[in-house]
Write a structure and sequence with these properties.
The complex is a heterodimer of chains A (about 450) and B (about 260). Chain A is α/β, with parallel strands linked by helices and about 450 residues long. Chain A is about 35% helix and about 10% strand. In chain A, the strands form 3 sheets. Chain A has a 6-stranded parallel sheet. A two-stranded antiparallel sheet of chain A has the order 1-2. Chain B is α/β, with parallel strands linked by helices and about 260 residues long. Chain B has a 5-stranded mixed sheet with strand order 4-5-6-7-8, with helices on one face. Classes of the chains: A alpha/beta (about 450), B alpha/beta (about 260). The interface between A and B is large, with 61 and 56 residues.
Chain lengths: ~450, ~260
């Protein structure tokens, strides 16, 4: 099989892994080496779906021993299979990197033969790049759950980021849909990575470990909507992952039907809107000082698809508002809908030299369309009369078109029903071209 | 020199260099002049009611201003001023003079006045340059020309060559590369890890070898396959990667 064909098959199978970040670590070049890493990461292109391309994202192979119901690469699926050699991957990476097409490599794989065998191939590929080619750019590799911890640890000293995908938010779904994957093996891999990171930070170093152990941290990915889990279950899990495993990122991926013959799986359109709301909530957890328990409760286990999670939270906590822009502390400013990290920081800075007016707020990037209901500026409030929560909600939603309005989402709006488990819209997406995730 | 005042508007003409601009800043700070406008070439048709004054670059004055900026203004001020200068926007020089004028009064608190009319235009221009600088680090596409020279044409809005060059010099110290700003006819040339900006033009078309074309095709294939069909969103793509940057990419983006 020629390299063009292999690249087509194995990049096509890798594209459902959401992560493409090249951020989180800054490294100068090494003697005789090629490559640096930049803390902010660098996007090199944007594909037709609007996603950033930063890394060469490929599977080592899509020949899989597992048969996970939601995955396009499951053994029982009839599709072309391919396998890269470590040399081919190293050559492609270097050739692309030299031409500044990419920041580095994202290497994942199906479970080829068994976890150990696959992990060893990943290790050999990264070792080849780092040692023979003296490649010093970014590498993100998968940790294959169930593989020998020694292999995972050795790979960790070569790469910048590692990830083990959880895939399904509960053990129940995992047992039902991916019987060969165990929750315990996945968490074990994540725990091992975490303890090696801490170990390295504590100063347990040895020659050749100058890059550090997984310096850009670890991430994971969850599928949304393949099982019956609520947003609350998912967000609580994310919070536990950020706190317990010190993860850098949890990625969410809307489930897309890959088969219409498996009655374990729903047949609805991909819940893209729900995915978007979860990402917004994820940001609130990581940067805005929210906890999952504040955003969703047993009584309200799911976000309102029409409303961003921060506005959703603010409308249920109207007794805290309005806040005075010129007095409120930073933590409270961050909780105002329409005020982001940057604008909150600017407000703090500006008000040390003068009081802000609504005009200033516009210039600092505050979205007054949302913020106006929740703030006063030197005692002034922009709205007149009494507004109840329903009216505010209507004004916030307005006529604005949601971000990322794709055809799928337009259908989702027209169809009315979004992501019912066992929906009565048995409209399967075009078979063959659709999958959720090619990976572990 | 007497203070210039009265109905006539004063326009300063300088040589377009950064030090020339800093010389003007020096004279403004000493209250020798209050320019209404600053230009870097003789006007085609001088306005009758304008006074024109040529400011000769004075390195001592310029260095004094630069020292004052780095010592008494906020930490990011000098960087922002340089970035604003590299924007080559028609109002960039005036923005810098206004910003400094306010800076001598506010000192370290200058950047706190980010909504002030003397500060905001400069912040905005500097921000635009910073964004393009970052974006261009990703969008440069080297082609390996016969002889092993890495050649990349670009056409940025701002003069970001001096900003991106150190990045590539660090990243690929063993390669000899040229990043060519085709709009400004200048290029950053890197030989053995040392880079310099020179006047540059390419005569005729460059013929690329078979190997180079193979990798270009592989990249284009990859770019096409990586798209997730049901998430197709050309609007978002154009928002993140505006059309004016497509011309010099290797990947071919469909409309």
């Amino acid at each position: 099989m020629d390299i063009h064909k292999k690249l087509e098959i194995l990049s096509g199978a890798a594209k459902y892994d959401v992560s493409c970040a090249s951020s989180g670590t800054a490294r100068k070049n090494i003697a005789g080496g090629i490559g640096t890493t930049v803390r902010s990461g660098i996007c090199h292109s944007w594909s037709d779906d609007g996603r950033c391309i930063s890394l060469l994202k490929i599977l080592l192979t899509n020949k899989c021993a597992y048969n996970c119901a939601y995955c396009v690469n499951r053994t029982s699926n009839d599709l072309p299979r391919a396998l890269f050699t470590p040399e081919e991957i190293a050559d492609l990476t270097i050739q692309f990197y030299r031409r500044n097409y990419i920041e580095g490599l994202f290497l994942s794989s199906a479970v080829y033969r068994n976890p150990d065998y696959t992990m060893e191939l990943i290790y050999r590929t990264t070792a080849l790049l780092r040692q023979k080619y003296r490649f010093n750019g970014y590498i993100h590799a998968k940790a294959i759950p169930g593989a020998d911890p020694v292999l995972i640890r050795r790979t960790g000293f070569l790469v910048d980021r590692m990830s083990a995908n959880i895939e399904l938010p509960t053990e129940k779904s995992l047992t039902l849909l991916a019987p060969q994957k165990g929750k315990r093996a996945i968490f074990k891999a994540m725990k091992d990575i975490k303890s090696s990171i801490l170990d390295y930070r504590d100063g347990n170093r040895f020659p050749g470990s100058h890059r550090g152990f997984v310096p850009a941290g670890q991430s994971t990915q969850l599928i949304i909507g393949a099982g019956p889990e609520s947003d609350r279950t998912i967000l609580n899990l994310s919070e536990a992952l950020y706190r317990g495993f010190s993860l850098k990122r949890v990625y969410y991926s809307a489930y897309v039907p890959v088969t219409n013959s498996d009655n374990r799986l729903p047949l609805a359109d991909p819940p893209l809107r729900r995915e978007h709301r979860l990402y917004q909530a994820d940001w609130l957890l990581r940067f805005y000082g929210f906890s999952a328990g504040e955003l969703l409760s047993e009584k309200n286990p799911d976000f309102d698809p029409e409303l961003d999670p921060k506005s959703y939270w603010a409308l249920s906590n109207m007794h805290l508002f309005p806040v005075e822009i010129n007095k409120a502390d930073y933590a409270m400013l961050l909780r105002v809908p329409g005020i982001g990290l940057r604008s909150a920081q600017r407000i703090i800075r500006i008000r040390t030299v003068r009081a802000l007016t609504f005009d200033d707020l516009k210039k600092t990037g505050v979205v007054l369309k949302r913020a106006r209901f929740f703030i006063t500026c030197s005692g002034r409030y922009l709205e007149k009369g009494d507004l109840d929560i329903v009216m505010i909600k209507e004004r916030i939603i307005g006529h604005h078109t949601p971000l990322l309005l794709t055809d799928a989402r337009r259908e989702e709006q027209n169809g009315g029903q979004l992501y019912l488990f066992g929906s009565d819209f048995p409209r399967a997406a075009e078979p063959g071209t659709i999958a959720v995730t090619g990976e572990l | 020199m007497p203070m210039v005042s009265g109905p006539k508007r004063l326009t300063c003409i300088y040589d377009g260099t950064f030090h020339g601009l800093m010389t003007i800043a020096h004279d403004v700070a000493k209250r020798k002049i209050i320019p209404h406008d600053i230009i870097d070439a003789e006007p085609d048709s001088p306005f009758l009611f304008n006074d024109y004054i040529r400011i000769a670059t004075d390195m001592n004055k310029a260095e004094a201003v630069i020292n004052a900026i780095t010592s008494s203004l906020p930490p990011l001020a000098y960087k922002r001023i340089l970035f604003c200068y590299l924007s080559e926007a028609p109002n960039a020089a005036k923005c810098i003079i206004d910003y400094l004028d306010m800076g001598w009064r506010c000192g370290k608190l200058l950047d706190h006045y980010s909504t002030h009319e003397n500060v905001r235009p400069l912040h905005n221009l500097a921000q635009k340059v910073a964004r393009e600088w970052h974006r261009m680090m990703g969008l440069v596409r080297f082609r390996i020309a016969p002889g092993g020279i890495y050649y990349a044409p670009i056409e940025p809005d701002n003069n970001i060559l001096p900003l991106i060059s150190p990045h590539f010099a660090e990243r690929m110290p063993r390669e000899n590369w040229i990043i060519h700003d085709t709009g400004r006819n200048i290029a950053s040339q890197c030989l053995k890890g040392e880079w310099d900006i020179v006047d540059f033009e390419v005569v005729g078309a460059i013929e690329y070898g078979e190997e180079e074309l193979t990798y270009q095709n592989l990249w284009n294939d990859y770019f096409t396959t990586i798209t997730i069909g049901y998430r197709k969103n050309k609007g978002l793509q154009k928002q993140l990667l505006p059309r004016r940057y497509w011309k010099h990419l290797v990947e071919r983006i469909a409309d």
